[in-house]
Specification:
There is one protein chain. By secondary structure, the chain is mostly helical. Helix content is 67%, strand content 0%. The protein has 17 helices and no strands. Helix 2 packs antiparallel against helix 6, helix 6 crosses helix 7 and helix 8 runs antiparallel to helix 9. The radius of gyration is 22 Å and the shape is globular. It starts with 16 loop residues before the first helix and ends in a 16-residue tail after the last helix.
Length: 427
């Protein structure tokens, strides 16, 4: 009898270079353009923020971070964004509670209002980041211009390039873009090898990251002391902090549809957004000025000298910031949830260090951010990457991978912090 042999299934064929070369120019153009849009909106928002929270209250004789100024600025920001949503064509895009990092292709008429609403939000103090609306704006712009300038290029290419380019620009590295695109491709039918499919998006992400690096010089490194050789106590701390942060994040996830529904009962952006601004002002007074805005520069202030903060103060800021993220994302402000979630996770990790000094601050921040981002974004690779890049400590990578396992078991299969159009949570 002939001996039976098992034959391995054939692997996907590798694309020839001539099939990939035509995508380089579109990817480069989209990468540079997406970065310039991001940098332009961020720069305009930062200059407006410095005016609104500096010379203006000083000229009026009001404290920059006083309760009266917070109760002026945040509701007024709600009124300004509400006017854009109400009156500007396109109403600044769809309900932000329904959006993720993978943005729909919006009509060109929607994009100016979306960008304006985002810039006003970033300057005014609500606890949201620029990622979702900037990705949506770049996707719409790339799809519209690409269809006109290069009509023979597949329409499906432009959104992927724009997403990758914007993520690369946001994080200052194409690695984040490659991880997001790879994770998205894992759930879809894919022709050919993974790296052939990632080639063009990675090119766009690299160009977006390099453009941002050359123009704006961003950095995510918090300057915390590096973690040395991991010990058994470090492993225990990682296994505790990440699930605790994930559990705290899931509290906001479960509350999200209910808070969103409460604001929707007001029925009009000129009521929802000012009401959200009033609540955000109260939270800003409770948590202090570091709990305002998107949170990236504020994390640096927290991490500059962790010994200056008590465990109770850091825990309070974490809870207040998470509540502010929940309110801002529910009432209609155009913004993303990643950067505020990073602040919350960092505060949780530093609170663990303040409570138990044996917990290394870099480990606390990294695992806190990991657990929080897993709960809020459900993006595993981005959560790992962001947590690692904040502390720039290679020794923390293995601990993060281990800590992600119980944290992921806590969040997988449960609702996400994203809603369908009917208000039900996405799972």
């Amino acid at each position: 009898m002939a001996q039976e042999t098992t034959q391995e299934p054939p692997s996907a064929p590798t694309a020839p270079a001539r099939a990939l070369l035509p995508f380089i120019l579109p990817a480069v153009v989209v990468g540079v353009a997406a970065s310039l849009v991001f940098v332009g909106v961020s720069t305009a928002a930062e200059r407006l923020q410095r005016l609104l929270w500096g010379p203006l209250p000083d000229a009026l004789g009001v404290g920059r971070w006083s309760a009266p100024w917070l109760f002026i600025m945040l509701p007024v920001t709600g009124i300004a964004v509400g006017l854009v949503i109400w009156k500007v064509p396109g109403h600044a895009g769809p309900d932000p509670a329904t959006l993720s990092l993978h943005a729909p292709v919006l009509p060109p008429a929607v994009l100016p209002g979306l960008v304006l609403a985002t810039a006003l939000m970033l300057a005014g103090g609500p606890s949201l980041g620029p990622e979702n609306p900037i990705i949506a704006a770049n996707v719409g712009l790339a799809a519209w211009l690409g269809a006109r300038l290069m009509p023979r290029t597949p329409d499906t290419l432009w959104p992927v390039l724009a997403e990758s380019a914007t993520i690369g620009a946001l994080f200052g590295t194409p690695v984040a873009a490659a991880l997001v695109i790879s994770e998205a491709m894992a759930g879809r039918p894919m022709r050919g090898r993974l790296w052939d499919n990632v080639f063009a998006p990675l090119t766009a992400g690299a160009c977006g990251a390099m453009t941002t690096t050359l123009v704006a010089h961003p950095t995510f490194d918090l300057g915390l002391p590096p973690l040395g050789h991991p010990r058994a106590g470090d492993l225990l701390a990682a296994l505790v902090i990440a699930p605790v942060a994930a559990a705290l994040g899931m509290c906001a996830v479960y509350a999200f549809p209910h808070v969103h529904a409460a604001f929707r009962r007001l029925r009009h952006p000129m009521l929802m957004l000012p009401a959200g601004g009033v609540l955000l002002a109260g939270l800003g007074i409770l948590g202090g000025p570091l709990t305002l805005f998107k949170g990236l520069s504020e994390i640096g202030e927290l991490a500059r000298d962790p010994q200056d903060w008590s465990a109770g103060g850091l825990a309070t800021m974490a809870v207040v910031k998470l509540a502010a993220l929940l309110v801002a994302a529910s009432c209609g402000f155009r913004g993303g949830r990643i950067f505020p979630a990073v602040f919350v996770g960092s505060a949780v990790g530093l609170a663990a260090h303040a409570l138990v000094p044996a917990v290394h601050p870099s480990l606390g921040v990294a695992t806190g951010v990991l657990g929080m981002l897993l709960a809020i974004t459900r993006q595993g690779w981005v959560s790992l990457f962001t947590a690692a890049v904040l502390v720039a400590s290679p020794a923390v990578l293995a601990l993060l991978c281990i800590a992600s396992l119980p944290a992921w078991l806590l969040v997988t299969g449960r609702p996400q912090m994203q809603l369908r159009e009917d208000g039900t949570p996405v799972r």
